[in-house]
Amino acid sequence: MxxxxxxxxxxADHHLVDTGLRRVLGPVDLTLxxxxxxxxxxxxxxxxxxxxxYAGPAIxxxxxxxxxxxxxxxLAYAELAAAIGGCGSAYGYSYAGxxxxxxxxxxxxxxxxxxVAVSAVAIGWSAYMNNALQAMGLALPAGxxxxxxxxxxxxLPAAAIVLILGLLLTLxxxxxARFNAAMVLIKLLAIGVFIAIAVSHVNPANWSPFxxxxxxxxxxGAALIFFAYVGFDAVSTAAEEARxxxxxxxxxxxxxxxxxxxxxxLVAGLLTGVVPYATLNVGSPVADVVLRLGYPWGAGLVAAxxxxxxxxxxxxxxxxxxxxxxxxxxDGLLPPLxxxxxxxxxxxxxxxxxxxxxxxxxxxxxxIGDVAExxxxxxxxxxxxxxxxxxxxxxxxxxxxxxxxxPFSPLIPLLGAASCLYLMASLPLVxxxxxxxxxxxxxxIYFTYSRRHSTLAxxx
Length: 460
Description:
- The chain is an all-alpha fold and about 450 residues long.
- It has one domain: Amino acid/polyamine transporter I (Up-down Bundle), CATH 1.20.1740.
- Helix 5 packs antiparallel against helix 13.
- It starts with about 25 loop residues before the first helix and ends in a 7-residue tail after the last helix.
- The model has no long low-confidence stretch (mean pLDDT about 90).
- It is a multi-pass membrane protein.
- GO terms for molecular function: amino acid transmembrane transporter activity.
- It is found in: Membrane.
- This is Amino acid permease.
- Keywords: Membrane, Transmembrane, Transmembrane helix, Transport.
């Protein structure tokens, strides 16, 4: 039992350690990573679906609720990222505060969260890209847009984009950050065009009734669009590639979340103000509304923004996955061949290649469907444990240097933990069952391999 609870020593000077990764990211890079990860399918797809089927015009309240839940967790992430660091994010924080078994569970959970999210977004990206190709008269054959389980051969665009992003990540974090920044600017421009068009077509009558599905609809919408906030935690995996992580990680995490929350609320309010909420249950509601308003060029730009947005989501989550995987392998809980960083590119090429091939296969060959809900429960579980980790470390390591401190502790961490549990309770039973199967597989691996090979156990 003692082995299950063993914790890693916290190095207060972690920002000075040479880990083989290249420290090149500043606060603007980290903020753009957060925006790149957050703004994607949530704003271009889920907003309309959640408004039409769950919350109505009160979808803006759903975003406020989900945003507050994320804000509590983001403050906890900011404290632990600055104080503990490391590319393992919630996995590393749990290892320092809650013990090896909890750390393994959350690390295994993060692997699921990021890999399923990348695969699911790749499938959505494929649909948008095919629409763009259709508009140019270059549509792909149906057999190359679906996997064999859906009557096709392979979802070629979905598999291809994962592999292309993998190649980009192997080149280096500086190149990846520059590409992300360019894509973020494109999608922010598209959102700006939508706002400029929609603001003059708002009909306040569309906001009545404001809560047609009641408060339960607002909460159901919050649980659904929580997927839209997945990604800001990936900023914390850049701790070993940030020039000044103790100062810049909190900036990147908190600023990106604040900016994206304001954008979500504004776009949701305009969408439901321009057209009746019941008409928003379509695959691309933002582009659809712009088209209905008579601006085909605007719809085209929004579609381009959606493609750019989904691309950055995949890139940042793929990046986060590889860094968490690297951290776990360094600790001996996964095979050591994944713990090596290429000295020339200063990137974990083996991890990038292995995870990329797996995610490309999932995206190209399987109908991921409802399994994407595992991303929500996995993210909420990570947020819950990070919030708890702040409380535990405040008690066990009261003198630990904390460049950023979560305000109003223990209230904020407690609210973060409670809100995450509340949203988890709103998820369907089948999601919990699938999550349980994944955790059971993880525990089997831990007790048959990881526990004995842990560096804290001597790497037997």
